[in-house]
Prior knowledge:
Layout: H1 7-23, H2 28-56
Helix pairs in contact: 1-2
Amino acid sequence: MDLPATEAEQALFEERAAIREFLGGMSRAEAEEAAREDVKRILAVERELDSGWRSRIKP
């Protein structure tokens, strides 16, 4: 998955990378790689939650 795909994903990615770089003491490259994994994980959970409630609604 290439990131970011949307403006929201870009903002999330940038925020995560900045936190890891400045508060976590990582290099920019390390912070971006970790942020990319963070965003992938967050999006996967959101998709799982999204599909879960939809499947429980009876038409």
